[in-house]
Amino acid sequence: MNTKQKGDIAEQVAVLEALKRGWGVLKPVGDRLPYDLVFDIQGCLVKVQIKAAWFDELRENYVVDNRRTKTNRRMMIRAKYKASDFDFALAFIEKLNVFYVFPLDVFVSYASEIHLVETDKRPRKPKAADYRNAWFLIQEWALRKVTYVESPVKFGEASGNGNPEPSPLPAIRVTERCRDLTAGTLLR
After folding, report:
1. Least C-beta-crowded within 10 Å: which of 1, 15, 67, 88?
2. Residues 54 and 9 sit within 8 Å (Cβ to Cβ)
3. Phi-psi region of 74 (alpha: psi -120 to 50; beta: other; left: phi over 0)
4. Would 58 be classed as within a structural domain?
């Protein structure tokens, strides 16, 4: 099985996981965008990059490349992802049916590869272990987003000459991310 097929399998398993959580799933047309899927969590859209991990027999751990790879018939170009490319990266280990759920800033903080250690033989816990099946991070991120409207003039205020004027359009101000739904239950 080639890497493209492994990536397709990882995407489909991610779709299934999202649907089990009650999230909507959107799939971009083509593969030119820096993200593979978009999760719709109560109206908040979360861009997700999916990576399939491979087993490094020498190091006895799983590896994911955290760079963008573009190919054509003549060459392969790898480049670092930008902060605007996606919100989360999901690294899938097919053999174990495990996802590592990395926020973008964590994902790009690694040099060029992320090593996922699936053994208890190490004296200290690897940094990536905190993100093993951490789907709740995506939901918490989406539900913390807040959107509200702020008006510079109180509605119904009259102008200086006593004649009411139509209120100006409210200034829309987006803070944090989507909307305040933190009272809801988080899936872990």
Report:
1. 1
2. no
3. alpha
4. yes
Nearest Cα residue to 49 out of 22, 10, 96: 10
Phi and psi at 155, nearest 5°, equal -65, 140
Composition of the chain by helix, strand, coil, percent to 5 = 20, 35, 45
CATH of the domain at 97: 3.40.1350.10
Query: pTM for this structure?
Result: 0.73
Identify whether 55 is part of a domain. yes
Q: Which tokens hold the place of 83?
A: 């902060």
Structure tokens at 31: 């593969």
In a domain, 152, yes or no: no
Tokens of 183: 């009272």
Our count of domains for the chain comes to 1
DSSP for 65-83, please give it: E-EEEEE-SS-EEEEEPPT
Residue numbers of the domain that contains 101: 3-143
pLDDT of residue 186: 40
Q: Which of 84, 83, 116 is nearest to 99 (CA)?
A: 116
